[in-house]
Amino acid sequence: MSIMTNAQETTDPRSAPGGTPGVTRATLRRNFWRGVWRVLRRKPSRMVGVVIVAGFAVMGVAGPLLYPDHLPRDDDALYAPPSLRHPFGTDFEGTDVLALVITGARYVLLTGLATAVITVALGTLIGLFAGFRRGRWDTVLMRVTDVNLAIPGLPLLLVLSTVWKFESPLEMGLVLGLLGWGGIARAVRSQTLSLRERGFIEAARGLGLPTTHIIGRELLPSMAPYIAMNMLIAVTGAVYAQVGLFFLGVLPFESNNWGVMLNLAVFNGGALTTAAALPYLMAPLLAILLLTLGIVLIVDAMDEIFNPRLREE
Amino acid sequence: MITGTGITKTFKQRGSVLGAREVRALREVDFAIEPGGAVSFIGESGCGKTTLGRIIAGLETYDSGEIVIDGVPMSGLGHRRRQPHFRRIQLIHQDPYSALNPTRTIHQTLEAPLALRAKQTGRSRSWVDARAEELLGLVGIDPGYVLPRYPHQLSGGMRQRVVIARALTMDPEVLVADEAVSMIDVSLRLGILGLLKDLRVRLGVGVLFITHDIATARYLGDDSELYVLYRGQVVEHGPTETVITRPVHPYTQSLLSATPVLHGLEKPGAERVVPTEALDPSRTDEGCLFAPRCQFATQLCTEQRPRLSHDGTTLQEHACFHPRTRSVIPTGTGTETEMGADTLADTGADMGARG
Amino acid sequence: MTANPTAPAVRVRGLTVVYKTPVGELPAVSNVDLTLAPGTITGVVGESGSGKSTLALCLLNAVQSPGRIAAGSVEIDGLGDVVELGGEELRRARGRHVGYVFQAAQNSLNPLKTIGKQLLDLGRSHGVEDLRALVRDAKDLLARMGMDGARVLDSYQHELSGGMRQRVGIMLALVLNAKVVVLDEPTTALDMITQATILRIVREVHDERGLTTLVITHDVGAVAEVADNLAVMYGGRVVEHGPVMEVLGSPRHPYTRGLIRAIPRLSGDISLARALPGRPPTLGTLPAAGCVFRERCDRRMDVCDTVEPVPLTRDGRTVACHAVDAAADVDANAAPGVAAGAADRTPTTARRKEYA
Ligand SMILES: Nc1ncnc2c1ncn2[C@@H]1O[C@H](COP(=O)(O)OP(=O)(O)OP(=O)(O)O)[C@@H](O)[C@H]1O
Ligand SMILES: Nc1ncnc2c1ncn2[C@@H]1O[C@H](COP(=O)(O)OP(=O)(O)O)[C@@H](O)[C@H]1O
Ligand code: SF4
Ligand code: SF4
Ligand SMILES: [Mg+2]
Ligand SMILES: [Mg+2]
């Protein structure tokens, strides 16, 4: 009998039994990144997305270093039309618009990143905890989430901006993040509720594995594509929110950034009525659209990156 | 040794239109699993099999009754103190597709519980990898092939073997196999059944096997016991072979009659029993639970509930006022011997496949 | 066999279906010939991944991308070659001519609409004028299958048990009067008693309505209960095909033998039963030349590695295997035409009544 069972599903005879290759964490990680690369290459659009996002990242990190602290003004060329010297023309002071976009990227992107990290971290933590513990914790946390969702963001920011200058993008990110985690918490909670009924979570509990293991190693990876997608989308959301706030002039503008550019172009330059300030308006808009496009193109790959079945072909 | 006495469980469903509705999932179920023994529970879907399995594995609470694990009654213990005892009983999930985490390799899946086990027993880390290979060898799959792979890269049969190997990491005393073979291809079922039987012999692990397909219960070993569950009540209980070849309860007979006949290879039993209607769990609880579907029901059956007991004439216990043996299972037609002959002839070839 | 004069025949010829994979297009169904005689139930059995569902989808010309029908034809009497149909014509044929009960039909109903609503949607999409008559037919069919038609039509999917949903699936496949019906795994995930009920219903409705039916399953037992003919698939090929009693009673192809030997049974010597060794094939692991079954075959010969066996028909049974060919040549010289098990062949109609 014992021989019979062993003969049932003898696996690949070529790999000798017992000769286990060292499946270390390092190899797994290497395989993961190789898989990510494979997934990204699968569609050209994804590579385009990667290039765009990488470009913005470089802009955010190195942009301000490329230009002097105070951008040169050219009083002879106010609202200059696009030319070789100024691909997007100049602004009301004769400063190169491209330079403004590039140096303004850091504030915008840092805010976006900070917001995304905070929303996702808070949302995931609260959603996971509520869904996993259920019962009283769930009730309390979900009420808190409801309150979060009900907070009117714009009026609150209006009030805040009277006392707070938001000089650092991280401060801005913190506020936007604290305002925006509700949706993700809700979604993560419902995912957790359905996942915790799955066989493998139940099995882990039956084996007596610690809760940290169950949440960190079993639940979280299953939700990774979902969380990563939300994170990317949160970046664009934060960029829009923040640019919008500056554009409306809700926030005092101390520094140069895309929202400020839009505001000045429309309200000072009259870009909507005269053609002269049009490039000044279009440049930051284009930057925002391009960033969104890049992110959307990458989001498409998240499912495949985190699902081994899709990743390994 | 694990025993259960009078296990009762009622689910209260809230939110139904008619207010709270009660489902009596288990009614005073008694059972015992010897070390290395095999016990099967059979019944239609909704008869309480899964509920019982989950209770025995400590994943579900029960309303009344007592479970005794190795002499320790569980009812006296708080939740925390129970856990180490229930860890000795491992559940093998029905669905090998959802029982393994799709984002983790088999190595990762086995490593976590083994590391925990190593800590509990004061063993070194190097023991973990060796033990993982040993367990996979034990369930009949090649560790070198399986360990680095993800669940989706394995066949259903291999996955179920991995699930069994994972359950074995805790050195359990009993494996609870809930429909462990119904989701995998028929062609691979006997392999898993053979493995369970093998583990009984080699490791002394007890097996509690839950299924709606009685035929599979035969393959756990000659010494196995069979419990037939109907609407939460055990209606027949005895040695597996006896209950299958000489069933006395009409419900057992219905289950046996429903097993497909391999026409051409076997002839249907002469007295096949078909329930008069479909199972309706919300039916009245008066009298014999099976009476509404039983073609042999009498006045007595609708008035009183028969209790599970020996009547002295049969080897098995039953809960029926009118027990009678009926020939419901198929018989061979003779062509089988021819098939059997060459089966024997090629056993040798298969055995050579793996030394 | 009770050939019904109104039932259409289905002739599958040289059918090849390929799926696009990263390593190129691979065949899930390879050059399959299969005839469904009018008025019969044909069972297709095989392990997971053998191409059963793919073959069945071809009867509707419904293979989804990344798959496509690469070659062959599916002729249905009164409809023509389904492979050639397209657009509106094809959409109308589905449901009207060919009814399909999908694998896991238990879960394929819309959870947000009542069954009745889904029935009306089906009727409208096929331009049924008299919706009242449609509902009446549906109720009759449901009653025929032992259910309260009015109640079922008012129910949502989650209010029905697995067996009831399966019957609803069958009703939806039949209500437009399709004469060819395909059931993909109709009883998988159902318990034995419910399975027996569903199989009995399939058989009865088939006889009453004069259908040509194709039942797909990995469970030989389920097919044995209902089918007249049995086709065994492996690796996208039909390796054996013939009357069910004969195929089960004296299987010829080594795969069929292995499959039957692997069935857990209520009677007989359990020590003779054994699982099929090896793993079911997948698209990627199928060998390009020679016999697809050879890795798991106990009768493998040298020729099997290089030459793919062709299906040969002898006394009404088709087998594709070199070993069987060789044996038959010897047999033919000794005692022509004696098939084991043919002696106790009982008429199918008699057998059908047994479980009624
Ligand atoms: N969309 C698809 N893309 C790629 N390959 C596919 C696709 N659908 C099916 N296949 C492959 O085609 C082969 C036949 O699949 P099919 O679904 O017909 O099998 P089956 O016999 O019905 O199996 P089961 O019993 O699991 O339903 C399998 O190897 C399967 O992996
Ligand atoms: N968590 C639950 N809540 C409410 N009812 C349940 C629950 N689990 C099971 N039941 C009910 O208990 C009965 C027995 O179920 P189960 O043990 O799953 O049966 P089986 O495994 O035999 O199919 C069924 O009527 C089922 O609907
Ligand atoms: S007690 Fe009566 S109703 Fe119940 S199973 Fe026996 S004969 Fe049938
Ligand atoms: S052709 Fe050869 S390998 Fe294939 S089934 Fe026949 S004997 Fe076996
Ligand atoms: Mg169950
Ligand atoms: Mg299928």
Automatic annotation (TrEMBL), chain A:
GO terms for biological process: transmembrane transport. Residues 1-23 are annotated as: Disordered. Residues 1-10 have a biased composition (Polar residues). Keywords: Cell membrane, Membrane, Transmembrane, Transmembrane helix, Transport. It is a multi-pass membrane protein. Residues 105-299 form the ABC transmembrane type-1 domain. The chain crosses the membrane at residues 47-67, 107-132, 227-251, 271-299. It holds the Pfam family BPD_transp_1. CDD domains: TM_PBP2 (cd06261). Belongs to the binding-protein-dependent transport system permease family. This is Peptide ABC transporter permease.
From TrEMBL, chain B:
One of its GO terms (biological process) is transmembrane transport. InterPro entries: AAA+_ATPase (IPR003593), ABC_transp_ATP-bind (IPR050319), ABC_transporter-like_ATP-bd (IPR003439), ABC_transporter-like_CS (IPR017871), Oligopep_ABC_C (IPR013563), P-loop_NTPase (IPR027417). One of its GO terms (molecular function) is ATP hydrolysis activity. Residues 2-256 form the ABC transporter domain. Pfam families: ABC_tran, oligo_HPY. Gene3D superfamilies: P-loop containing nucleotide triphosphate hydrolases (3.40.50.300). CDD domains: ABC_NikE_OppD_transporters (cd03257). Residues 326-355 are annotated as: Disordered. Keywords: ATP-binding, Nucleotide-binding, Transport. Belongs to the ABC transporter superfamily. This is Dipeptide/oligopeptide/nickel ABC transporter ATP-binding protein. It comes from Sphaerimonospora thailandensis.
TrEMBL record, chain C:
One of its GO terms (cellular component) is plasma membrane. Residues 10-260 form the ABC transporter domain. It comes from the Bacteria. It is a peripheral membrane protein. NCBIfam families: oligo_HPY (TIGR01727). Belongs to the ABC transporter superfamily. This is ABC transporter ATP-binding protein. It comes from Sphaerimonospora thailandensis.
